[in-house]
Amino acid sequence: MSYRIYWKTAIDFTAVMLMLPLALMVGLCVAAVVCLTMGRPVLFRQERAGLGGCVFTLLKFRTMRDANDRDGKPLPDEERLTRVGQWIRKLSLDEIPQLWNVLRGDMSLIGPRPLPSKYLPRYSAEQNRRHEVKPGITGWAQVNGRNAIAWDEKFRLDICYVDNASLAFDIKILWKTILTVLIPSGIGHGDEPTMHEFMGNLPAEPSIELPQPDPNERRAA
Asked: Among residues 111, 154, 155, 95, which one has the least CA distance to residue 8?
């Protein structure tokens, strides 16, 4: 518990400050490419749920162009995701701006990935436990399938991290993250380039019992 409360935040801050010079150089290059290929804004902003369910604004580099259909609704992700955006996602370069979220205290380097705030009412009590720790740029679910796994498995891995967070566990996740970046996998979900929306824990539809034939009627026939 002391690691989560005291040491983890100090390690996050120190690590980000050490990475900052390289992150700034790479980030400026990515920002220039995004601006040239997709225009402005360069950053994507979205409200996400953090520690205790508190909402914050997450930053990422844009990987999709703004495009709507005739009714003014955004086109599907696979139609808006650009070729450059695919490479930015594959190399996880879109996550670089989240180092600012870590410095602000919204996020940690390692923890459950922050999900859109609109999901908050959709969680079960067990799934909501993922907010007992700060969300992370990478996490246990990220290095065990990323977007290729189902929501239930993703949440199970998140809770596993909540229950077992430690320095040794974080080092293990960090090492597996490096391997995941070098050998990209799990970026999309099936044929979709992004994870489909989490709709909540819908109750199973009641089964319909078909009327069984009366054996007496069968004999009479």
From this structure: 111
Six-digit token string for 54? 């508190």
pTM: 0.80
Q: To which H or E segment does residue 43 belong?
A: strand 43-49
How far apart CA 118 and CA 123 sit, in angstroms, is: 10
Alpha-carbon 3 to chain mean position: 24
* Rounded Cα gap, residues 98 and 137, in angstroms: 7
Contacts of 26 (CB under 8 A, 6+ apart): 93, 96
Per-residue pLDDT of 27-50, as tens digits, reads 999 999 999 988 889 999 999 999
Strand partners, 81: 64
Question: How many angstroms separate the most distant Cα atoms in the chain?
Answer: 89
Residue 214: exposure state from Cβ atoms within 10 A (0-12, 13-18, ≥19): exposed
- Cα 201 vs. chain centroid, distance in angstroms? 18
